[in-house]
Amino acid sequence: MEIVTAQEMYDWDQLAIQSAGIEGKVLMESAGREAARAVEGKVERHDRILVLIGAGNNGGDGFVLARTLLNRGYHVQAWQVVPDEKISGDALLHKEIYSASNYPLLKLEDWEEFTAAMQSADVLVDAMLGIGANGPLRSPLKEIVELANQQSCCRIAVDLPTGVPADEGVVDFDGFRADHTIVIAALKMSAFLQHTRPYYGEVEVVEIGLPVKYKNKGRRVVWQADDVKRTLPKRGADSHKGSHGRGLIIGGSYSMPGSIAVSAKAALRSGAGLVTVATAKSAIPSVSSYVQEATFLPMNEKDGAITGHAVEDFQQFDGVAVGMGIGRNSEVQELMSELLAELNVPLLIDADGLYQVKELLEDVEVRSAPIVLTPHPGEFAHLTGEPISKVMQSPFAYSKEFACSHGVYLVLKGPATIITSPEGDQRVDVSGNAGLAKGGTGDVLSGILLAMMLQSESFMDGLCNGCFIHGSTAELLTEASHSKTGLLATDVIEGLSQSFRIFS
């Protein structure tokens, strides 16, 4: 499923018109009809539906939607909220078809009458502005959106809630707060941003006949269940433990053994053939009691914290994850430097390791073997030197710039996790729920990702599958047996078997 900017959506639309010969009025008819079909799935036959119609393509879609619903016997009031002279082109054609169909068109001339109509509606459909938002709304759209947001009825937006920017980086806006958004053709960036995502509500994408040949070439897509089923590694009948990778997890301490323990357990539950835990000797009894299937490599320590180890002992492994519970002392930074310089296998860096690697980005850039960084927004802000708020306003741009500049795979964790390759390809995982907002779940993800790195033919596919499996497991558990409040990282690990049974 593609994710586009406003310009990319416009370009796709224009190519369909100019190169494929599909007239704009035909696309508008298709968009309005498909939106009407989606609305039918969200309303009751007796509902009073008020359609707010503006100018431009979104308004044209609104005329088609209102006419289609009226043709199908729904109770619809169509309100044109902009002056007649604002409606032109294909939108004007569909306004004329609507009127010629002998359906009444109400116009915003009396505010009290309009307010009363909105207050009596069961459903508000927003077809006022769509993708054309650029900064705060002007009158009368500003007042209409404020009034709409005050109503207790169901609110449905067509393509994009009015006022919400399509692209990232915009924070000053007024937005229609939709319960449902019917997206035309492709998801827009703002559907995945922390400050704009709540305006969308539930999202449904409708296809309107734009030729796929002319769309964005998959550089930015949503990773879905079908993608996981298509790419998840399959275990051969004659495979053995060596077939699925030897993984090493470096981290933990006497006072923080849990992080490394759950990472190791998660890696094993996710199919890694062999997992070794390199940690402080004093932490091994705590970790081994939880994950008996792992082997152990004692690390030099001081006061229960890792101080280092001979890196040549790590060369026997096929992939390494480092950072969970490792601490932030100067000896750890020396270890990180040695790992980057001397270890020629895929390396995943998480948690405390991310704070150490900021000073070692030049070493990261010259390393030939793949590097995966898995920050949450606060850790990523530390890596970039930018405020968290700024990073979260433009996560796609910041992720791509960082990944390409430093030659890393970047997994920016959040409700919409953005996975970026060193070449700038981006995939978004929206699985998971608030049950994962708890200590230890990030360590579980690191273990899953290490296992996927060891087993997957495609490095990028493996990271995306790991993120999806992690989030989907939380969803499965909270649907069947756990609450979002009570879900633990260890519960997620135990639930992984069910997820792999479903998606394998």
> What's the overall geometry?
elongated
Low-confidence stretches: none
The total count of strands amounts to: 20
Given the structure, what is the number of helices?
A: 18
State the end-to-end distance. 21 Å
Helix content: 40-55%
Radius of gyration from the alpha-carbon trace, in angstroms: 26 Å
Largest sheet: 11 strands, mixed
Mean pLDDT: 94
Beta-strand residue percentage: 15-25%
Spatially, the strands of the biggest sheet line up as: 10-20-19-18-17-16-15-11-12-13-14
Q: What structural class is derived from the secondary structure elements?
A: alpha/beta
Structure overview:
With 504 residues, the protein is of the alpha/beta class. It is built from 18 helices and 20 strands. It has helices at residues 6-18, 24-40, 56-71, 89-100, 111-120, 141-150, 225-231, 258-269, 284-290, 330-342, 352-357, 361-366, 377-384, 388-393, 395-406, 441-455, 459-480, 489-503; strands at residues 3-4, 48-53, 75-80, 105-107, 123-127, 154-158, 180-184, 187-188, 202-206, 220-222, 246-250, 274-280, 295-302, 305-308, 319-322, 347-349, 371-373, 409-412, 417-420, 426-429. The strands form three sheets. The protein has an eleven-stranded mixed β-sheet with strand order 10-20-19-18-17-16-15-11-12-13-14, with helices on both faces. Strand 5 (123-127), helix 6 (141-150) and strand 6 form a beta-alpha-beta unit. Helix 7 packs across helix 17 (459-480). The longest helix has 22 residues, at 459-480. It is elongated and about 80 Å long. The chain starts with a strand and ends with a helix. It holds the Pfam family Carb_kinase. Its cofactor is Mg(2+); K(+). Its EC number is 4.2.1.136, 5.1.99.6. AMP binds at residues 413-417, 442. This is Bifunctional NAD(P)H-hydrate repair enzyme.
